[in-house]
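Hi R.,

Here's the input for the manganese (II) ion complex you asked about:
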Amino acid sequence: VALFAVAVRAQTVQVDGNKVVEVLTRLANLSDHENPAVTRILFTPNDMLARNFVKDLMREHHMTIREDAMGNIFGRWEGSDASAGSVLTGSHCDAIPLAGMYDGTLGVIGAIEAVAALQRAGFKPSRPIEVLFFTSEEPTRFGLSCSGSRAMAGALTAEALESKLDSQGRHFLQVANEVGYGAASTSDMLAATRLKEGQVDYFVELHIEQGPLLEREGLDIGVVTAIAAPAALEVTFHGDGGHAGGQLMPDRNDAGLAGAELALAVERHVLASGSVDTVGTTGTFEIAPGAINSVPRDARLAIDIRDIDGPRRDRVVAAVLASAKEIAERRKVRYTSRVINQDPPASSHEDIVSAVAASAEALGLSTKRMVSRAYHDSLFMARVAPMGMIFIPCKNGWSHRPDEFSKPQDIANGVSVLALTMARLSGG
Ligand code: GLV
Ligand code: MN
Ligand code: MN
Ligand code: MN
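And here is the predicted structure with manganese (II) ion in place:
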Protein backbone atom coordinates (compact mmCIF):
# COMPACT_ATOMS: atom_id res chain seq x y z
CA VAL A 1 0.00 0.00 0.00
CA ALA A 2 2.82 2.38 0.86
CA LEU A 3 4.12 1.83 -2.65
CA PHE A 4 1.03 3.33 -4.20
CA ALA A 5 0.56 6.18 -1.79
CA VAL A 6 0.36 9.30 -3.93
CA ALA A 7 3.92 10.46 -3.55
CA VAL A 8 3.50 13.74 -5.35
CA ARG A 9 0.33 15.66 -6.06
CA ALA A 10 -0.62 15.46 -9.73
CA GLN A 11 -1.13 19.22 -10.02
CA THR A 12 2.42 20.00 -8.94
CA VAL A 13 3.89 18.20 -11.95
CA GLN A 14 4.15 20.74 -14.77
CA VAL A 15 5.32 19.70 -18.21
CA ASP A 16 5.61 22.00 -21.22
CA GLY A 17 4.95 19.88 -24.31
CA ASN A 18 6.34 22.54 -26.65
CA LYS A 19 9.62 22.51 -24.79
CA VAL A 20 9.89 18.73 -25.12
CA VAL A 21 9.18 19.09 -28.86
CA GLU A 22 11.91 21.71 -29.12
CA VAL A 23 14.44 19.30 -27.56
CA LEU A 24 13.20 16.43 -29.76
CA THR A 25 13.65 18.67 -32.80
CA ARG A 26 17.24 19.46 -31.88
CA LEU A 27 17.88 15.74 -31.50
CA ALA A 28 16.13 15.06 -34.84
CA ASN A 29 18.69 17.23 -36.59
CA LEU A 30 21.40 14.71 -35.67
CA SER A 31 20.45 12.62 -38.66
CA ASP A 32 21.84 11.18 -41.88
CA HIS A 33 18.82 12.54 -43.75
CA GLU A 34 17.42 16.02 -43.68
CA ASN A 35 14.53 17.06 -41.46
CA PRO A 36 11.78 15.87 -41.21
CA ALA A 37 13.35 12.50 -42.05
CA VAL A 38 15.47 10.97 -39.30
CA THR A 39 18.07 8.26 -39.94
CA ARG A 40 20.37 7.42 -37.07
CA ILE A 41 22.16 4.10 -37.21
CA LEU A 42 23.99 2.45 -34.33
CA PHE A 43 27.53 3.76 -33.64
CA THR A 44 27.59 6.08 -36.66
CA PRO A 45 28.69 9.69 -36.08
CA ASN A 46 25.08 10.89 -35.65
CA ASP A 47 24.35 8.15 -33.10
CA MET A 48 27.46 9.23 -31.17
CA LEU A 49 26.33 12.89 -31.33
CA ALA A 50 22.89 11.87 -30.07
CA ARG A 51 24.54 10.05 -27.17
CA ASN A 52 26.45 13.18 -26.20
CA PHE A 53 23.31 15.27 -26.57
CA VAL A 54 21.43 12.97 -24.17
CA LYS A 55 24.32 12.78 -21.69
CA ASP A 56 24.50 16.59 -21.58
CA LEU A 57 20.78 16.76 -20.84
CA MET A 58 21.12 14.15 -18.10
CA ARG A 59 23.93 16.16 -16.52
CA GLU A 60 21.86 19.34 -16.72
CA HIS A 61 19.28 17.54 -14.60
CA HIS A 62 21.80 16.41 -12.00
CA MET A 63 21.90 12.77 -13.03
CA THR A 64 24.98 10.63 -12.61
CA ILE A 65 25.96 8.94 -15.85
CA ARG A 66 27.09 5.37 -16.29
CA GLU A 67 27.62 3.58 -19.61
CA ASP A 68 27.89 -0.17 -19.96
CA ALA A 69 30.02 -2.21 -22.33
CA MET A 70 27.36 -2.21 -25.07
CA GLY A 71 26.80 1.52 -24.82
CA ASN A 72 23.55 1.52 -22.87
CA ILE A 73 23.57 4.89 -21.07
CA PHE A 74 22.09 5.27 -17.58
CA GLY A 75 21.37 8.63 -15.93
CA ARG A 76 20.76 8.12 -12.23
CA TRP A 77 18.83 10.32 -9.83
CA GLU A 78 19.80 8.95 -6.44
CA GLY A 79 17.08 7.97 -4.00
CA SER A 80 17.01 8.19 -0.21
CA ASP A 81 17.27 4.38 -0.24
CA ALA A 82 20.38 4.06 -2.38
CA SER A 83 20.57 0.32 -1.85
CA ALA A 84 17.09 -0.28 -3.30
CA GLY A 85 16.61 -1.46 -6.86
CA SER A 86 15.91 1.41 -9.23
CA VAL A 87 12.82 2.54 -11.05
CA LEU A 88 14.19 2.41 -14.57
CA THR A 89 12.70 4.17 -17.57
CA GLY A 90 13.97 4.67 -21.07
CA SER A 91 13.85 3.91 -24.74
CA HIS A 92 16.04 4.23 -27.83
CA CYS A 93 17.40 7.04 -30.00
CA ASP A 94 18.47 5.01 -33.01
CA ALA A 95 16.19 5.48 -36.00
CA ILE A 96 15.66 3.25 -39.03
CA PRO A 97 16.31 4.81 -42.45
CA LEU A 98 13.87 7.66 -43.17
CA ALA A 99 12.04 7.44 -39.86
CA GLY A 100 10.43 10.18 -37.80
CA MET A 101 11.48 12.12 -34.73
CA TYR A 102 9.32 10.57 -31.96
CA ASP A 103 9.82 6.78 -32.10
CA GLY A 104 12.06 5.94 -29.14
CA THR A 105 13.35 9.46 -28.58
CA LEU A 106 10.16 10.43 -26.73
CA GLY A 107 10.92 7.74 -24.15
CA VAL A 108 14.40 9.15 -23.54
CA ILE A 109 13.91 12.91 -23.81
CA GLY A 110 10.46 12.60 -22.21
CA ALA A 111 11.92 10.61 -19.33
CA ILE A 112 14.55 13.28 -18.66
CA GLU A 113 11.79 15.89 -18.73
CA ALA A 114 9.72 13.73 -16.34
CA VAL A 115 12.64 13.68 -13.91
CA ALA A 116 13.03 17.45 -14.31
CA ALA A 117 9.31 17.94 -13.58
CA LEU A 118 9.57 15.82 -10.42
CA GLN A 119 12.63 17.77 -9.34
CA ARG A 120 10.79 21.07 -9.87
CA ALA A 121 7.87 19.70 -7.84
CA GLY A 122 10.29 19.07 -4.96
CA PHE A 123 9.85 15.30 -5.09
CA LYS A 124 12.50 13.21 -3.34
CA PRO A 125 12.69 9.63 -4.62
CA SER A 126 13.08 6.72 -2.25
CA ARG A 127 14.12 4.10 -4.82
CA PRO A 128 16.63 5.64 -7.25
CA ILE A 129 15.18 6.73 -10.58
CA GLU A 130 17.24 5.99 -13.68
CA VAL A 131 16.78 7.12 -17.27
CA LEU A 132 18.12 4.73 -19.87
CA PHE A 133 19.24 5.25 -23.47
CA PHE A 134 19.21 1.75 -24.95
CA THR A 135 21.75 0.72 -27.55
CA SER A 136 20.21 -0.27 -30.87
CA GLU A 137 16.58 -1.11 -30.40
CA GLU A 138 16.30 -1.06 -34.18
CA PRO A 139 17.78 -3.95 -36.17
CA THR A 140 19.15 -1.76 -38.97
CA ARG A 141 22.89 -2.26 -38.60
CA PHE A 142 23.36 -5.84 -37.42
CA GLY A 143 19.92 -7.30 -38.21
CA LEU A 144 19.26 -7.79 -34.50
CA SER A 145 16.61 -5.78 -32.67
CA CYS A 146 16.88 -4.69 -29.03
CA SER A 147 20.59 -5.60 -28.76
CA GLY A 148 21.13 -3.57 -25.61
CA SER A 149 18.10 -4.84 -23.72
CA ARG A 150 18.59 -8.45 -24.86
CA ALA A 151 22.08 -8.32 -23.39
CA MET A 152 20.94 -6.59 -20.20
CA ALA A 153 18.39 -9.39 -19.71
CA GLY A 154 20.94 -12.13 -20.43
CA ALA A 155 18.95 -13.11 -23.52
CA LEU A 156 21.80 -12.83 -26.03
CA THR A 157 24.61 -15.31 -26.56
CA ALA A 158 28.05 -14.49 -27.92
CA GLU A 159 27.47 -16.91 -30.82
CA ALA A 160 24.22 -15.19 -31.74
CA LEU A 161 25.78 -11.74 -31.65
CA GLU A 162 28.93 -12.81 -33.48
CA SER A 163 26.87 -14.36 -36.28
CA LYS A 164 25.52 -10.91 -37.15
CA LEU A 165 27.58 -8.69 -39.40
CA ASP A 166 26.91 -5.21 -40.69
CA SER A 167 26.92 -4.40 -44.42
CA GLN A 168 30.71 -3.98 -44.31
CA GLY A 169 31.13 -7.43 -42.79
CA ARG A 170 32.06 -6.10 -39.36
CA HIS A 171 31.08 -7.39 -35.92
CA PHE A 172 29.28 -5.54 -33.16
CA LEU A 173 32.32 -5.85 -30.88
CA GLN A 174 34.70 -4.37 -33.47
CA VAL A 175 32.52 -1.33 -34.04
CA ALA A 176 31.77 -0.95 -30.32
CA ASN A 177 35.48 -0.97 -29.48
CA GLU A 178 36.16 1.69 -32.10
CA VAL A 179 33.68 4.13 -30.56
CA GLY A 180 34.92 3.56 -27.02
CA TYR A 181 32.58 0.83 -25.78
CA GLY A 182 33.04 -2.94 -25.95
CA ALA A 183 35.41 -5.26 -24.12
CA ALA A 184 38.15 -7.78 -24.87
CA SER A 185 35.69 -10.34 -26.25
CA THR A 186 32.02 -10.56 -27.12
CA SER A 187 31.35 -12.77 -24.09
CA ASP A 188 33.10 -10.32 -21.76
CA MET A 189 31.04 -7.52 -23.24
CA LEU A 190 27.78 -9.43 -22.74
CA ALA A 191 28.70 -10.48 -19.21
CA ALA A 192 29.51 -6.88 -18.27
CA THR A 193 26.21 -5.66 -19.71
CA ARG A 194 23.98 -8.11 -17.91
CA LEU A 195 21.90 -6.54 -15.12
CA LYS A 196 22.55 -7.77 -11.62
CA GLU A 197 19.94 -9.38 -9.44
CA GLY A 198 18.07 -6.70 -7.49
CA GLN A 199 19.43 -3.83 -9.59
CA VAL A 200 16.07 -2.89 -11.11
CA ASP A 201 12.75 -2.99 -9.23
CA TYR A 202 10.52 -1.62 -12.02
CA PHE A 203 10.83 -0.77 -15.69
CA VAL A 204 8.48 1.58 -17.54
CA GLU A 205 8.74 2.95 -21.08
CA LEU A 206 6.96 5.91 -22.67
CA HIS A 207 6.40 5.59 -26.43
CA ILE A 208 4.16 6.80 -29.23
CA GLU A 209 1.49 4.24 -30.07
CA GLN A 210 2.65 3.62 -33.67
CA GLY A 211 -0.94 2.60 -34.38
CA PRO A 212 -4.21 4.52 -34.87
CA LEU A 213 -6.40 3.38 -31.96
CA LEU A 214 -5.92 6.14 -29.37
CA GLU A 215 -6.40 8.91 -31.91
CA ARG A 216 -9.36 7.18 -33.54
CA GLU A 217 -11.11 6.70 -30.21
CA GLY A 218 -10.19 10.17 -28.93
CA LEU A 219 -8.30 8.81 -25.90
CA ASP A 220 -5.29 10.33 -24.15
CA ILE A 221 -3.19 7.48 -22.80
CA GLY A 222 -2.63 3.83 -23.73
CA VAL A 223 -1.88 1.56 -20.81
CA VAL A 224 0.02 -1.31 -22.39
CA THR A 225 -0.91 -4.75 -21.10
CA ALA A 226 1.26 -6.89 -23.41
CA ILE A 227 3.75 -6.72 -26.27
CA ALA A 228 3.19 -8.87 -29.38
CA ALA A 229 5.69 -11.57 -30.29
CA PRO A 230 8.15 -10.54 -33.03
CA ALA A 231 10.14 -12.84 -35.32
CA ALA A 232 12.68 -12.08 -38.05
CA LEU A 233 13.85 -14.45 -40.78
CA GLU A 234 16.44 -14.16 -43.49
CA VAL A 235 16.14 -16.25 -46.64
CA THR A 236 18.55 -16.25 -49.56
CA PHE A 237 18.13 -17.90 -52.98
CA HIS A 238 21.03 -18.58 -55.33
CA GLY A 239 20.69 -19.39 -59.01
CA ASP A 240 23.15 -19.34 -61.86
CA GLY A 241 22.30 -15.97 -63.39
CA GLY A 242 22.92 -15.33 -67.05
CA HIS A 243 22.37 -13.02 -69.99
CA ALA A 244 18.88 -11.52 -70.19
CA GLY A 245 18.86 -11.92 -73.96
CA GLY A 246 20.81 -15.06 -74.59
CA GLN A 247 19.50 -17.33 -71.87
CA LEU A 248 16.18 -18.91 -72.87
CA MET A 249 13.42 -19.18 -70.29
CA PRO A 250 13.55 -22.99 -69.82
CA ASP A 251 17.26 -22.77 -69.02
CA ARG A 252 16.94 -20.25 -66.20
CA ASN A 253 16.89 -20.61 -62.43
CA ASP A 254 16.02 -17.03 -61.53
CA ALA A 255 16.69 -16.33 -57.85
CA GLY A 256 14.71 -13.09 -58.05
CA LEU A 257 11.54 -14.93 -59.05
CA ALA A 258 12.03 -17.40 -56.21
CA GLY A 259 12.23 -14.41 -53.86
CA ALA A 260 9.13 -12.85 -55.39
CA GLU A 261 7.20 -16.07 -54.85
CA LEU A 262 8.33 -16.22 -51.24
CA ALA A 263 7.27 -12.62 -50.54
CA LEU A 264 3.80 -13.51 -51.82
CA ALA A 265 3.83 -16.74 -49.78
CA VAL A 266 4.49 -14.69 -46.63
CA GLU A 267 1.37 -12.67 -47.30
CA ARG A 268 -0.64 -15.82 -48.04
CA HIS A 269 0.43 -17.64 -44.85
CA VAL A 270 -0.23 -14.56 -42.72
CA LEU A 271 -3.71 -14.09 -44.16
CA ALA A 272 -4.42 -17.80 -43.72
CA SER A 273 -4.09 -17.41 -39.93
CA GLY A 274 -7.52 -15.80 -40.16
CA SER A 275 -6.66 -13.18 -37.54
CA VAL A 276 -5.98 -9.47 -38.10
CA ASP A 277 -3.47 -9.76 -35.27
CA THR A 278 -1.10 -11.77 -37.46
CA VAL A 279 1.13 -9.55 -39.61
CA GLY A 280 4.00 -10.29 -41.95
CA THR A 281 6.31 -8.05 -43.96
CA THR A 282 9.09 -8.68 -46.44
CA GLY A 283 10.89 -5.46 -45.56
CA THR A 284 14.06 -5.95 -47.54
CA PHE A 285 14.36 -7.76 -50.84
CA GLU A 286 17.71 -7.42 -52.57
CA ILE A 287 18.66 -9.02 -55.84
CA ALA A 288 22.11 -9.29 -57.35
CA PRO A 289 23.85 -8.51 -59.57
CA GLY A 290 21.08 -5.96 -60.08
CA ALA A 291 21.37 -5.12 -63.76
CA ILE A 292 18.49 -4.88 -66.21
CA ASN A 293 20.14 -7.27 -68.63
CA SER A 294 21.15 -9.90 -66.11
CA VAL A 295 19.05 -12.77 -64.75
CA PRO A 296 19.09 -12.37 -60.94
CA ARG A 297 21.60 -14.77 -59.46
CA ASP A 298 21.02 -13.99 -55.79
CA ALA A 299 18.00 -12.85 -53.81
CA ARG A 300 18.02 -11.99 -50.15
CA LEU A 301 14.83 -11.36 -48.18
CA ALA A 302 14.38 -10.16 -44.62
CA ILE A 303 10.97 -11.16 -43.31
CA ASP A 304 9.24 -9.83 -40.19
CA ILE A 305 6.35 -11.86 -38.72
CA ARG A 306 4.41 -10.93 -35.58
CA ASP A 307 1.33 -11.86 -33.63
CA ILE A 308 -0.12 -11.29 -30.20
CA ASP A 309 -0.48 -15.12 -30.11
CA GLY A 310 3.00 -16.70 -29.95
CA PRO A 311 2.12 -20.26 -31.10
CA ARG A 312 0.05 -18.93 -34.03
CA ARG A 313 3.03 -16.73 -35.01
CA ASP A 314 5.26 -19.80 -34.82
CA ARG A 315 2.99 -21.71 -37.21
CA VAL A 316 3.30 -18.91 -39.77
CA VAL A 317 7.10 -18.90 -39.35
CA ALA A 318 7.18 -22.65 -39.98
CA ALA A 319 4.93 -22.30 -43.05
CA VAL A 320 7.16 -19.58 -44.51
CA LEU A 321 10.29 -21.69 -43.99
CA ALA A 322 8.54 -24.65 -45.65
CA SER A 323 7.59 -22.47 -48.62
CA ALA A 324 11.20 -21.31 -49.00
CA LYS A 325 12.28 -24.95 -49.31
CA GLU A 326 9.46 -25.86 -51.70
CA ILE A 327 10.07 -22.84 -53.95
CA ALA A 328 13.82 -23.49 -54.05
CA GLU A 329 13.28 -27.12 -55.09
CA ARG A 330 10.70 -26.32 -57.72
CA ARG A 331 12.74 -23.45 -59.20
CA LYS A 332 16.02 -25.36 -58.94
CA VAL A 333 17.82 -22.70 -56.93
CA ARG A 334 19.94 -23.25 -53.83
CA TYR A 335 18.73 -21.56 -50.65
CA THR A 336 19.59 -20.78 -47.05
CA SER A 337 17.20 -19.77 -44.32
CA ARG A 338 17.91 -18.43 -40.89
CA VAL A 339 15.74 -17.42 -37.96
CA ILE A 340 17.30 -14.22 -36.64
CA ASN A 341 14.97 -13.98 -33.69
CA GLN A 342 11.71 -15.59 -32.64
CA ASP A 343 10.82 -14.00 -29.34
CA PRO A 344 7.83 -14.79 -27.13
CA PRO A 345 5.34 -12.04 -26.25
CA ALA A 346 5.63 -10.24 -22.90
CA SER A 347 3.02 -9.16 -20.39
CA SER A 348 3.04 -5.97 -18.39
CA HIS A 349 3.07 -6.28 -14.61
CA GLU A 350 -0.18 -5.46 -12.86
CA ASP A 351 1.59 -3.12 -10.38
CA ILE A 352 2.77 -0.90 -13.23
CA VAL A 353 -0.49 -1.15 -15.15
CA SER A 354 -2.29 0.14 -12.05
CA ALA A 355 0.32 2.81 -11.36
CA VAL A 356 0.02 4.13 -14.93
CA ALA A 357 -3.79 4.01 -14.89
CA ALA A 358 -3.96 5.75 -11.50
CA SER A 359 -1.49 8.42 -12.62
CA ALA A 360 -3.52 9.15 -15.75
CA GLU A 361 -6.69 9.29 -13.72
CA ALA A 362 -5.12 11.72 -11.24
CA LEU A 363 -4.39 13.99 -14.20
CA GLY A 364 -7.92 13.68 -15.54
CA LEU A 365 -6.77 11.80 -18.65
CA SER A 366 -8.74 9.10 -20.43
CA THR A 367 -7.09 5.69 -20.89
CA LYS A 368 -7.33 2.48 -22.87
CA ARG A 369 -5.70 -0.83 -22.01
CA MET A 370 -4.04 -2.09 -25.15
CA VAL A 371 -1.50 -4.42 -26.70
CA SER A 372 1.67 -3.06 -28.29
CA ARG A 373 2.01 -4.49 -31.76
CA ALA A 374 5.42 -2.90 -32.20
CA TYR A 375 8.22 -4.36 -30.13
CA HIS A 376 10.27 -2.36 -27.68
CA ASP A 377 13.15 -2.88 -25.28
CA SER A 378 10.37 -3.45 -22.74
CA LEU A 379 9.93 -6.91 -24.31
CA PHE A 380 13.26 -7.92 -22.80
CA MET A 381 13.16 -5.77 -19.68
CA ALA A 382 10.04 -7.76 -18.72
CA ARG A 383 12.37 -10.71 -18.16
CA VAL A 384 14.31 -8.95 -15.42
CA ALA A 385 11.78 -6.65 -13.77
CA PRO A 386 8.07 -5.89 -13.61
CA MET A 387 7.46 -4.01 -16.89
CA GLY A 388 4.89 -1.52 -18.12
CA MET A 389 4.47 0.94 -20.99
CA ILE A 390 2.69 4.24 -21.55
CA PHE A 391 1.44 5.09 -25.05
CA ILE A 392 0.36 8.45 -26.41
CA PRO A 393 -1.59 9.00 -29.65
CA CYS A 394 0.24 9.68 -32.89
CA LYS A 395 -1.20 11.13 -36.07
CA ASN A 396 -2.97 8.49 -38.19
CA GLY A 397 -0.91 5.84 -36.40
CA TRP A 398 2.00 6.73 -38.68
CA SER A 399 5.46 5.65 -37.59
CA HIS A 400 8.72 4.60 -39.24
CA ARG A 401 8.15 7.44 -41.70
CA PRO A 402 9.21 11.09 -41.70
CA ASP A 403 5.69 12.47 -41.12
CA GLU A 404 5.37 10.67 -37.78
CA PHE A 405 3.74 13.22 -35.43
CA SER A 406 2.39 13.58 -31.90
CA LYS A 407 0.78 16.74 -30.55
CA PRO A 408 2.65 18.74 -27.89
CA GLN A 409 -0.34 18.32 -25.56
CA ASP A 410 -0.22 14.52 -25.92
CA ILE A 411 3.51 14.61 -25.28
CA ALA A 412 2.97 16.69 -22.14
CA ASN A 413 0.31 14.18 -21.03
CA GLY A 414 2.60 11.21 -21.57
CA VAL A 415 5.53 12.81 -19.78
CA SER A 416 3.31 13.81 -16.84
CA VAL A 417 1.90 10.27 -16.56
CA LEU A 418 5.43 8.89 -16.66
CA ALA A 419 6.53 11.33 -13.93
CA LEU A 420 3.66 10.39 -11.62
CA THR A 421 4.10 6.70 -12.35
CA MET A 422 7.78 6.86 -11.44
CA ALA A 423 6.96 8.81 -8.27
CA ARG A 424 4.48 6.11 -7.25
CA LEU A 425 6.89 3.30 -8.01
CA SER A 426 9.83 5.01 -6.34
CA GLY A 427 7.94 5.87 -3.20
CA GLY A 428 9.28 8.95 -1.48
C1 GLV B 1 10.35 -1.49 -33.68
O1 GLV B 1 10.79 -0.53 -34.24
C2 GLV B 1 9.48 -2.39 -34.30
O2 GLV B 1 9.76 -2.73 -35.47
O3 GLV B 1 8.49 -2.78 -33.67
MN1 MN C 1 11.07 1.89 -34.42
MN1 MN D 1 10.59 2.54 -30.82
MN1 MN E 1 10.87 0.05 -32.01
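One thing worth noting: The chain has two domains: 2-228+346-426, 231-342.

Cheers,
M.
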